[in-house]
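Trying the structure run again after the queue cleared.
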Amino acid sequence: MAVPGPYSGVSTLAFVARASAFTFGVVYGSIKLSYLRSKAKSHQKAEAKGHH
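Done. C-alpha cells:
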C-alpha cells in the first residue's frame, strides 16, 4: 500500500462542496415536503367544507 502524499486524491474543497450540497438538498427537501404536506392538508379541509 502506497503512503499517501500531500495530495491523496480527495480534495478538501471538493469534499466540503459535496457535503454542503448534500446538506442543502436534505434541508431543502424537508422544507419542501412539509410545505407540500401542509398545503395538501389545507386543500383537503377546503374540499371537505365544500362537500358538506
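The longest helix spans residues 12-51. Worth checking whether this holds up in the mutant runs.
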